[in-house]
Amino acid sequence: MILTDRRRATSHTLPTICGSSMRSRALLLVLWRLIRRVGLYSKRSWSRLLWTILSSLRKIATHPQAAELFRFIFLGTIVETGRQVAAKVLQFAKDFFVVRAEFASGDFAYDWVVNYLENHRVWNESRSFKVVARNATTRPYPTSNLGKVDGHPDPLYEPATTQSPSLFRWKGYWMTITKTTAGMSHYDTRPEIGAGYGVLVLSVLTWDRSVLDDFVSEARSFYVNSQVLPRKQFNIKSEPSESLLTAHFRQGDISYDWMLEYLRSSDALKDIMELNVTTKQSDLGWGTGPKDAVRFMPAPESMQRLLFKSPRTGKSAWLQVVMTAGSPHWETSRLVGGSITITFHSSDREVMLDLIDAAKQKYTELGTSRVTVHLMDKYGSSWNSFTRSRRALSTLVLPTDVKEMLLADALEFLDSEKWYNMAGIPHRRGYLLYGAPGTGKSSTVHALAGELGLEIYFISLANPGVDDFSLARLISDTPSRWILLIEDIDCAFPSREDDDEDEDEKDEQRKRDRRGNRYQSNQLLPPKSAVTLSGLLNVLDSVSSEEGRLTFATTNHIKNLDPALIRAGRMDLKIKYSLATASQIEEVFKVFFSETDSTEVEQCASKFAAAVPPEMYSVAQIQGYLLNKKRDPLGAVEGVEEWLKEQEAERRALIESKRRWREEMARRRMEEEQQYQLEMQQQQRMEMPPLSNAGYEGGYVAEREDGREGESEDEDDGAGYETPNEE
Ligand SMILES: Nc1ncnc2c1ncn2[C@@H]1O[C@H](COP(=O)(O)OP(=O)(O)OP(=O)(O)O)[C@@H](O)[C@H]1O
């Protein structure tokens, strides 16, 4: 009954308390029953509950095991608090009594400290190290007595890779040093991280920070004043420091040649550890001594250290040299685009200037004088520069006065800039050098450039990458007072006189499309260059480039040139280069044997000149013959008859082969023409309407007198063909 009553009471109170969900209703019902059973709804029952809890706690506390537990908790709290306080105090003491510095490889400070530590045998004193075999003869390792004379490397001590700190004493202070090397992370994208990255942590047990400053400054001055090459630590490509002086030398600029010669000299080579050994002739020519047959160069793409001592002030500084090798130019295969970057381990500008001076002086002592030549790259987008030996104007064998006249004219032009400005005439002058190949046209330009101290900008119109636009852009990127050299200017445009013998073969090739099919006579021939005549004229007349320009154009075929190209104002002076005259032949002979007894040479020269027919051979051809007899003037005279016979035979053979070639070409042309006509006839027949429909009303194909098929009358414009019937 009681149960029933309670259920009733619950059922009518619950809906006012809870929500609608069945599950929460059931939960609340259980709770409600619990409260009612314990009687928590009354004040008396609360105090009873409290009393129960307290009495239970008292029971637990008086239990012997519980008392033990409380004691442990209490003690533990005290110990942990003490430990934390001690750690805080220790950390504070460490911060206060230990000075800590970090050095990262790639920075010079790192090198100073590492160099200092290595020279003070810190790793030898360490409890953990690795032993490596290196050549230590250049380094003062007093403990190492091995390997001094037998050419084998010495054992050296290096920090162990375990990163364990080494302890050492410096001026009464204890220091610990930790060196981490060899690639902390291979995944790091920063350039200085990866294999070879190193960090050095130096801690000094002192509260005085100036101890560390003193240490670093001692390491620095030890490094700077050291006469022993510091061992290369890490080959880091990035710039080591922005605050130090760095000088860049680019190939094509004469200062690059100075520096290259200096680096090749024995002064610098003694410090350089990675060398390129070559027996290849360099731009600068062979040396005279037997040792010069092998040339040494600092290895490109490597970082080299060398000590430079200024001859003027006696100051010295370590230099870090990084060389980049150039790549071969597409047309000439000369190396272009190389560079030398020198970082001075000093911020003293005087040292840098002294180095450049010393390099220049070394270069002058060698007696090499060079001319800078800029060649366009294969895309016609930029200039690649290099230098080549200067040629003395006196070595050119030209008809009397030509050299003198050219030089005087160019000098006068360069001197009269003001006059040009006053007269409102653009300050530029054009020279056209024309004549047979090998007569000295290009050599004249190079010799003149050396004489006038001007740079040559060489453009090749046959370069597939160059067009009007790129040519104009390239020309605008030039200095004032320069030489523009356009060789074989005729090659750029289709020749208008196809009967030229030398050009026949080239033209024949050009007259074929990519698949080898011949261009028909009614089709336009492709131009030889993407540069158009008007594009070139624009460049010659342009005011965009700096003025003071001497333009030299050379050609073997002046008759192929458009008159617009060579009119006065564009080509002011036209100089003809002929095949060698008698006096030129004699002079070439004398130049060749200038080191032999003069009376003998005089006699031989006139005999030689009398034997060689004038204006038959170029100077280049005569030089070619004399090169084989360069120490034997008498032999040169005796052998000339034989050589002339050979030349004559060669000439005849050449004429004969050209004749045969022309005949063959004419035959092929005729065959092609016939084939073409035949194909056209067949094609027209195939397009012809069926014969059954032919008739007066339907139109027809008429046979023309010349054998070609006519068109139907219906499609004609009214003039019509005469029909066979009408005929
Ligand atoms: N008049 C000359 N005096 C001295 N050397 C010459 C002379 N002519 C030609 N040579 C020599 O012949 C070689 C070719 O000369 P160069 O290239 O100057 O001739 P070029 O007339 O420009 O020929 P091309 O028309 O084929 O370009 C060079 O090695 C040069 O030394």
TrEMBL record:
Q: Where is the composition biased (Low complexity)?
A: 675-688
What membrane topology does the UniProt entry give? Single-pass membrane protein
Q: Where is this region: Disordered?
A: 495-522, 670-727
Q: Coiled-coil annotation: which residues?
A: none
Q: Which residues form the BCS1 N-terminal domain?
A: 73-266
Alphabetically, the GO molecular function entries are:
ATP binding; ATP hydrolysis activity
* Database matches in InterPro entries: AAA+_ATPase, AAA_lid_BCS1, ATPase_AAA_core, ATPase_AAA_CS, BCS1_N, Mitochondrial_chaperone_BCS1, P-loop_NTPase
Question: Per the record, where are the segments of Acidic residues compositional bias?
Answer: 497-506, 711-727
Predominant subcellular localization, coarse grouping: mitochondrion
Organism domain of life? Eukaryota
All copies of the AAA+ ATPase domain together span 427-581
UniProt GO cellular component terms: mitochondrial inner membrane
**This protein's UniProt keywords:** ATP-binding, Hydrolase, Membrane, Mitochondrion, Mitochondrion inner membrane, Nucleotide-binding, Transmembrane, Transmembrane helix
| Catalyses which reaction(s) | ATP + H2O = ADP + phosphate + H(+)
Cite the PROSITE patterns for this sequence: AAA
Report the locations given in the UniProt record. Mitochondrion inner membrane
Protein family according to the UniProt entry: Belongs to the AAA ATPase family. BCS1 subfamily.
PANTHER family from the xrefs? BCS1 AAA-TYPE ATPASE
| Stated name of the protein | P-loop containing nucleoside triphosphate hydrolase protein
Organism annotation: Roridomyces roridus
